[in-house]
Amino acid sequence: MASSPVKHNQLLSIYQEAIGIIDHGVVWLDREGNIIGVNRQFADELGYPEADLNQKTIFQINPHTNLLHWRKLWTQLQDDGRLYLETEHMTAKGSIFPVGFKGVLVELEGEQFCCGIIENLLESARFHRLLKLTERISRSGSWELDLIKKEILFTEGMLELLGIPAQEVMDENDARDLLKTFLPQQEFDNLLALLKEAAKKGITFDTELNLKLPKRRMRAELRASPITSEGFTHKITGILRDLSAFTERTEALYLMQFCIDHAFSMIYWVREDGKFEYVNKAVCQKLGYSQQELLGMAVMDVDPELTKESWNALWQEAKEQKNLEIERTRRGKDGEIFPVKISLNYVNFHGKEYCLKFAIDLRKKKEREKRIHFAEQTLKQAKDIIYWLDVDGNFLFFNEALSKLSGFSEQELAGMTIRDLFPDYSMTDIKAGWERIKIEKIRSSELEMTCKDGSTIPLESLITITNYEDREVACAILRDIRHRKTQDENIQLSYHTLSQADEMIYWLRKDGRLRYFNNSFCQNLGYTPEEVEQLRELDFYPNLSQQKYESDWETILSGSTISGEYEVLKKDDSILPVEGRFSLIKYAGEELILGILRDITERKQKEAALQKQFEENERLRKKLEEENILLKEEIKLEYSFSNIISKSPNYKTVLQKVEQVADTDTTVLILGETGTGKELLAKAIHQMSNRADRPLVKVNCGALPENLIESELFGHEKGAFTGAYQRKIGRFEAAHHGTIFLDEVGELPLDLQVKLLRVLQEKEFERVGGTQTIRVDVRLIAATNRNLEKLVQAGTFRKDLYYRLNVFPIKNLPLRERLDDIPLLVRHFVEKFNKQLGKNVSEVPQPALQSLMRYDFPGNVRELENLIERAMILSSGKKLLLDLVSTRSELEEDHSFKTMEEMQRVHILEALKRTHGRVSGENGAAELLDMNDKTLTSRMLKLNIHRLDYLKE
Question: What is the value of pTM for the model shown?
Answer without folding.
Answer: 0.34
